[in-house]
């Protein structure tokens, strides 16, 4: 007769004073000795949940059972086998069919043999065990949720940051070894390179990938990295880094959750995550991060893009066909006697006049007209800066302040009326329960009204402090950008990304002239309109 033992321990259950691994082994050996049996093997699952039956040692034991190599299984109690009601009952029926004795040593004052003894309350026992593990799971998830809500780091790896424990709490500290990689990725992306080209640059420089880096750190700390690791950069890695606002100092918690015990982790929508801005030191400036998001959005919106040329086209991804709406990409307009770089509509390139018209235009021509456009806009900006120093600016500030102060006075009066009405309603009611309901009803109203007062107060303070200084700074900053493009032999791609929203290219078919419409991210008309409101 072959007798085996089974031991399982979950760390969460251990906190509730369950027996340790050693204690369970002692119970099994003592029971077997009393019966005069020899235990051939004890299968041990350390730190395994009882809710799932997919455990390493348990699976090995069941394999031996199915091969007919086991006659008796000894375990401390039924909860060691599992805490999933349905799955445990199915297992017990299976063992009965195979004529295997499962003995629960501490049950029924001396042991319960599920093959030979009566066990009418077994269903209730397994149900209780399942409810217990579900209760533990709820408590764990509630505890994690509370920590996430407070912005505490619980788990996860952050490529570019180290988790450092300070005063019993984990903090994100910049990893100086990885920081240059993150910064280079953003720099290359803003400069116009796509995900694949960035991967090629990183591989050429021999920069370590996120998964490989985590694997190396695990090995250094004497741990095994169980996930797959690759030494070659992949496009999805670049995309994740570009989209991750952790690099501007923002911490997001509750990004994933599981609806069921041991269930699959699901992504949580961004609007439902907990967001903590300025939580740690940034690796990327907020301006560069925002610019990268705008570039990504613009690239995703292009209806058709095919451009595998190695030449760095300065206006690549900016130009849109005004006739068919598809992308206009960089092409060689002429190869001999000298290469002539330019752009054309992708639909014309692919289908000819059946789908669109020839929009061929030299890059130098676009740059010339763009510079002339910026010169005119610069003159308009400079004229406006002079004008906002006049009495009109002072009048605008006074008018805005009067309007906000009037709104604040009305909001304060509204709060006073609400508080007075609350006092009257409470005075009319003698029942304590009803008084509590009245208190609760007015509580939300008071919060909203106080929030409105605080918001108006902040806006008044901000207007007094800033006035039109930020507007002037913004315009002067734009002029600096214009000057760079106007005077530089070859404009910097990053500067172009900051200013250009899109360039629409039209083909005038009779005259074969090319018409340009430049649409910028900055708009003087919008700025001045917002200023005058």
How is this structure best described in words?
The protein has helices at 11-14, 21-35, 56-66, 78-81, 85-97, 122-149, 179-190, 195-205, 210-220, 235-243, 286-301, 346-351, 363-387, 391-428, 432-466, 469-487, 493-499, 524-532, and strands at residues 3-9, 39-46, 72-75, 101-104, 112-113, 161-166, 169-174, 251-253, 256-257, 266-267, 274-276, 319-321, 328-334, 340-345, 361-362, 500-508, 513-520. The chain is built from 18 helices and 17 strands. The termini are far apart. The radius of gyration is 35 Å and the shape is flat. The protein has 4 domains: 3-138, Resolvase, N-terminal catalytic domain (Rossmann fold, 3-Layer(aba) Sandwich), CATH 3.40.50; 161-292, Hect, E3 ligase catalytic domain fold (Alpha-Beta Complex); 304-386 and 479-532, no CATH class; 402-467. With 533 residues, the protein is α/β, with parallel strands linked by helices. The longest helix has 38 residues, at 391-428. The strands form 6 sheets. The chain has a 5-stranded mixed beta sheet with strand order 2-1-3-4-5, sandwiched between helices. A 3-stranded mixed beta sheet has the order 12-16-17.
